[in-house]
Design a protein that fits this description.
By secondary structure, the protein is mainly α. The protein contains 7 helices and 2 strands, in the order αααααββαα. The protein has helices at 3-12, 19-42, 47-57, 61-89, 101-131, 152-188, 201-212, and strands at 137-138, 142-143. It is elongated and about 55 Å long.
């Protein structure tokens, strides 16, 4: 058996996160990928952007996009709460084979930062919208605006000077996270990628690996 085949076998047999944690991870990843571009479009509620979006997709399209951004933000917050609970009940699997100490430290730092940002950023947006005051619709079903008084100045500060930069930071850290995952998958082939592959795919990969031996 060659060294590459041994590496593939080790990756296939690597311990994995509990299925609920993998499911929540990929659900949050999907919403974040949707949130980043919509957040960029709606930032500042610029009149030129409003008119351009409405002209392209129809009158009121910008408002629909804005409401969807709020809805998805609340969804991310809810999913992150579930992730914290799931993490407490299902600890991280071991690295097998072990990774370098600096990689473990860097991975832990990025994960802690992302967890914190994905909880704090939607909360800041939620408070900012509620202070404006503006609706916080949850998929057009119910208004989840917080029962707090109007404060237009603090609202604009939170949304423009806190929420938006935090969103950019999420994008940067997400890109670092993705590049690191691809490094482990394509270069190292050390089982790190397989720890978090979606439920169902793990068994498929294991089956294909066993057939190739």
């Amino acid at each position: 058996m060659s060294a590459s085949e041994e590496a593939e076998g080790a990756a296939t047999d690597a311990p994995r996160y509990a299925w609920i944690r993998r499911m929540l991870h990929w659900a949050v990843a999907l919403f974040v990928l949707l949130q980043l571009p919509t957040g960029y479009v709606i930032a500042g509620y610029e009149q030129d952007t409003v008119e351009a979006v409405d002209a392209t997709f129809g009158k009121g399209a910008f408002d629909v996009l804005y409401d969807l951004h709020k809805s998805m933000g609340l969804t991310v917050l809810g999913l992150m709460v579930l992730r914290v609970v799931a993490k407490a009940g299902a600890p991280n699997p071991e690295y097998r084979p072990p990774i370098k100490a600096w990689e473990r430290t860097a991975s832990h730092a990025v994960h802690v930062a992302l967890y914190g940002l994905l909880i704090v950023t939607p909360i800041v947006g939620w408070v900012g919208v509620s202070l404006y005051p503006a609706p916080a619709p949850f998929y057009f079903l119910v208004d989840l605006r917080l029962p707090i008084g109007e404060a237009r100045g603090p609202s604009e500060f939170l949304l423009g000077n806190v929420h938006a930069p935090l969103g950019i930071l999420i994008g940067i850290l997400a890109a670092v996270h993705i590049l690191a995952a691809l490094k482990h998958r394509l270069l190292n082939r050390d089982g790190v990628w397989e720890r978090m592959i979606p439920p169902g795919e793990a068994s498929d990969q294991a089956g294909s690996a066993s057939r190739s031996r």
